[in-house]
Design goal:
Blueprint (H helix, E strand, L loop, with lengths): L8 H9 L30 H14 L3 H8 L11 E4 L2 E4 H14 L8 E5 L5 H9 L4 E6 L1 H14 L2 H5 L1 E5 L5 H5 L5 E5 L7 H14 L2 E7 L6 H4 L5 H9 L12 H14 L7 E7 L6 E7 L11
Parallel strand pairs: 3-4, 3-6, 4-5, 6-7
Antiparallel strand pairs: 1-2, 7-9, 8-9
Helix pairs in contact: 3-4, 4-5
Bound molecules: S-adenosylmethionine.
């Protein structure tokens, strides 16, 4: 027998363990079991980093010059050891790909020069970092839970220069003086992936605050809730799932990977996050790359007549 075409040691092992002699007996789960994870796909349950990097790379290779310009103007993105790829000589992670998409969406619809901004639920501060690095922001006010504020304060102190950092105010919700905040005026409020994790009455209170104090509102949140154990195996437990389902203004269940179901949920999203009836929606769209995150920018036509309390 001519041995020059025989299986490598690698494939001899695969034949032994995965594509065995009875591999063809039952095709029921062929494409989602270890047979296919040796043929056409990597096992998604153990290759999360690979898929995240592939997605980041794909987005990175498609960024517009404007997307890149915003990213390049945002320094020290390497702090915190992000899961990164390199595209065209630049290190890139998913957080800042999203940040440039978000800011691009806002910039196309309003002028941020000299703006006063309020962000509710800022996480570690990626949006504040990018917005302040790209625009001459007069004042950036972050409203968040105390522990998260400690994190964003530490991160932004390291990533922004002293002058920009000095224009940020950190307001813990636990000591939010609503009366004091209501006399302020902001050109833009942002809420990114966080109202969906708040109690419905909290969301209503924030929308009311936004209505009274802001002229624009950018929101990016899920269009609804989902139950799909295949996505993460409910790693954080059944209770965490139940808590997620009770929060946010939009609690209807949908298949978040069905584009028609997502599209059908969009009108409720636009209404659910509108701070008040008079606010006009300047634009909305899918928050790429996620199938079920939607974004919208609203404008308050009455705000121009509000007396700024500066
Ligand atoms: C999933 S993180 C999103 C962070 C950030 N916007 C981003 O997209 O990277 C949710 C954020 O909402 C904040 N948050 C949760 N409950 C809140 C509340 N009641 N008021 C204000 N912020 C809250 C959390 O501390 C966190 O900063």
């Amino acid at each position: 027998m001519d041995l020059k075409y025989q299986a490598s040691r690698q494939w001899a092992r695969i034949q032994d363990q995965f594509i065995t002699e009875d591999a063809a007996v039952d095709l029921t789960n062929l494409k989602s079991d270890p047979r296919n994870f040796k043929l056409a796909l990597w096992d998604p349950s153990t290759n999360g980093i690979r898929y995240l990097k592939a997605l980041t790379y794909q987005l990175g290779m498609d960024l517009s010059p404007e997307d890149w310009a915003r990213i390049k103007r945002t320094p020290h993105r390497e702090i915190g050891d992000p899961i990164s790829v390199r595209c065209e000589g630049e290190t890139l992670c998913m957080d800042y790909v999203q940040a440039t998409f978000e800011l691009g969406f806002i910039e196309a619809r309003m002028d941020l020069h000299g703006a006063r901004v309020m962000e509710i639920g800022a996480g570690y501060g990626r949006s504040a970092h990018m917005i302040m690095s790209n625009h001459d922001i007069a004042d950036y006010c972050i409203v968040d839970l105390t522990n998260t504020l400690e994190l964003s304060s530490a991160y932004l102190r390291r990533t922004l220069d002293r002058d920009r950092y000095g224009r940020i105010r950190f307001i813990p919700v636990e000591s939010l003086d609503e009366a004091a905040l209501r006399t302020e005026r902001f050109d833009l409020c942002l809420n990114i992936h966080s109202m969906t994790e708040m109690r419905p009455e909290t969301v209503n209170a924030y929308l009311d605050l936004i209505d009274r104090t802001c002229s624009h509102f950018y929101v990016k949140n899920p269009v609804g809730k989902y139950i799909d154990k295949s996505l993460d195996g409910y790693l954080q437990g059944q209770e965490a799932v139940e808590m997620a389902l009770e929060n946010g203004p939009l609690r209807q269940l949908l298949d978040i990977h069905d584009s028609e179901a997502v599209q059908a949920a969009v009108p409720a999203f636009i209404e659910g996050y509108r701070p008040n009836d008079g606010w006009e929606c300047l634009g909305d769209g899918r928050a790429v790359p996620w199938s079920y995150l939607w974004q919208a920018l609203y404008r308050n036509p009455l705000a121009d007549r509000a007396e700024p309390a500066r």
